[in-house]
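Researcher: Please translate sequence to structure tokens.
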Amino acid sequence: SFSISAGTYRLKPISEEKALGKNNNFIFNDNQKYTIPVYQRPYSWNKEQVKKFISDIFISYWGYDKQSKPEPLFIGTMQFSALSDQKQEHEIIDGQQRISTMFLFLKILKLVYLKEARLKKVDLTCLSTKVNNGAQQKFLEELLSLDNLDKLTDNPLNKYLTNAKYIYQLFQDQIEEKVEGDPIFNPTDFIDYLLEQLLFVVIETNAGLSKTLQIFDAINTTGMDL
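Model: Translation complete:
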């Protein structure tokens, strides 16, 4: 037997009052942790995928002309295992590329805006990976442990570092004032937007491994005939 539940998630409530509201579906929620299981592939998004991810966020934030009002952005569907009561931990069955890239972006913002209180409350160490017998975890920890942007270097072996550096370049390019009339970038408003207006649909499955992977396959291929 198995069960499936689904909900719309955001990253993190801006205030404690909002956290106590009806919707408590947040990625960064209390001591909740996420792990990428051993049978997953390594983090592998290329520059084209990363560029589209960051571009979509900024287009939804201020439009193509930087003059539009922010609109919510649907990031995509992710599949989690049921929450482990003992470890308060979800396994990420589907969506590790998106959520990992989001973590990289947040890490860059934490390094750029060291004094932003909202970012200080975002604990990126809640993500871990068991892929490649711990090798991927070492690469992830290398990125998350950085304490300044000067240490952000290309590493052909570490996709987390390479993509993080590229994200920083894309971010700087987005916030530059290129033409007269461009708005001055407001980091606090942008961080609020990321935390509250990026939407994920999370499908939580409580099942054995074979059934969990069958559900993954149904989501990502044709599913049942209509």
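Researcher: Any highlights?
Model: The longest helix spans residues 96-112.
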